[in-house]
Design goal:
By secondary structure, the chain is an all-alpha fold. The chain folds into two domains: 423 residues, Growth Hormone, Chain: A (Up-down Bundle); 59 residues. 69% of the residues lie in helices and 0% in strands. It has 24 helices and no strands. The longest helix has 36 residues. The two termini are 17 Å apart. The N terminus and C terminus are likely disordered.
Length: 577
Amino acid sequence: MDSSTGPSPGPAPAAAPAPTKLGFRVYAIVAGLGLANLLAALENTVVAVAAPVLLTDLRFGDSFIWITNAFFLASTATQPLFGQFCNIFGRRPVMLGAVAVFVLGSGVCGGASTAGMLIAGRAVQGVGSGGIMLVSSIVISDLVPLRRRGNLSAMIMAVIGVGSALGPFIGGAVVSATTWRWIFYLNLPIGTLAFAVLFLFLRVRHGTDVSLGRRLRRLDLVDSGLLVASTAAVLYALSYAGTRHPWPSWQTLVPLLVGLAGLLLFGVLETGGFVPAAEPLMPPRFFRNRSLVILAVNTFLNSALLYWSMFFLPVFFQAVKLYSPRRTGVAMLPFSLLGIPGAVVGAVALTRWGRYKPVHVLSFALQTLGFGLFTLQDEATTTAQWAVFQCIVAVGGGISFTTILPAYQAFMAERDLAACTAVWYFIRLFGHVWGVAVPGAVFNNRIDALLAQGAISDARVSQAISAGGAFQAASSAFVEQFPPPLQAEIRAVYREAIRRVFQVAIIFAGIGSLLALFEKEIKLRTTLETEFGLQDGDNDKTRKDYNDTRSRPDPERVPLPPSDGSLDADKQAKGPT
């Protein structure tokens, strides 16, 4: 039953304008956004496959997890600030800046001579990647109505899918044929092309005429700093818990508790604001609705499960199946490619029927099934079996990729578009961080427990893969240097550790399935309501539609703050119950 109907004069549905027509410039902008997102997609999967060689060359030790954590920490913590940048400075300069930052970070990574330099470069890449993903979604939301956004998102997903599919193969080929540095240098020409396309075609309205000083005063830099520091503290604790430091140790508990306290303080400050003139990064009104909370939690879970697979399936293929890096890249193709049809199915269903709850239930059910099948994998698993298992998980995850954000935006007024999209991406990328840290901790702890039980008879091998060294050593070259009986022991340890990783994933996916049953569906808007748009005047009617629709409040949506941006709105607004 649709509960979004509110008081509207007469035959309002029949008077709805015709679907927005998409011209050449729109598709050119989408192509530029696709190229930009291709950068991040390639980088994530390339690094996953090439990690063992890279880690050995720069001698990371148990700091290996910071190759991914530095990237995701920087991506995640800067999301809300990017949302403010889009409102204050406009979409175009922020998008171009994000691409430039990512290319800069790629150059730093390619030229890294130490582990610290590579981690710093990955952090710079993370800032750029986070900006690219967020601003791409905001721009798409400015171009088409809510109900049709899934279609353009599916186009971006197709590009990301191609990049994810090619990434493992390219990473394996590069590592096998030349130096790992080229997995970063490849971003330079792609990034330059993306920047050029967006520079030519991404010309949209700014949406504000206030002075630069007033714009800068709207930035919530104090809360942003607190958010970054708190997220970093939590991530540091998770990275070394159970490996370098025991879970009950002060080295783990102090940063974990300080980080969680900082996040709690951040939430308190968002209700009142430390700087009165600043806009809140995460307005509390965004969470005063049961369905918004469920969608936020499931966004976190879906994102975590994506990286759960992306980073530990290669470990299975290289350390258990004894595939080379190049063959591992090929073996990951089903997981990388099948997310595309899943995303298309979700987008088509959303556009055709305007319903997202059944899509989300199906998505998490498929992922739960797929992770259960992953736990059955071992040395004898056939190609057909692991390919089918990957397809199930990939389709399930892809279905949610293009539908959760429109569902989240459905409860918001379009004036809150950039802010709510930034919050959603923060939650999504925070899920990525935990999707590496949590299975990493589970994996390392299981390895150490098996070694303590005497699972490997050679003390040298046990020392090499204990205390966080197992991920770094997860390659066929490492395993095959030992005699066959010892190889069998090593493969068995990796098999059991990976099995435990996917057993925990079943729990997370199952929780998502249950929560999706309690989502509340509301009608998705079919008209474009935005203050932003193409500069050539084609969106004049859109601006009129925006002004008209603002005068017709929807009882299901989160109330708007006052037009002057007063922070009192979050103290007074009462979300739907």
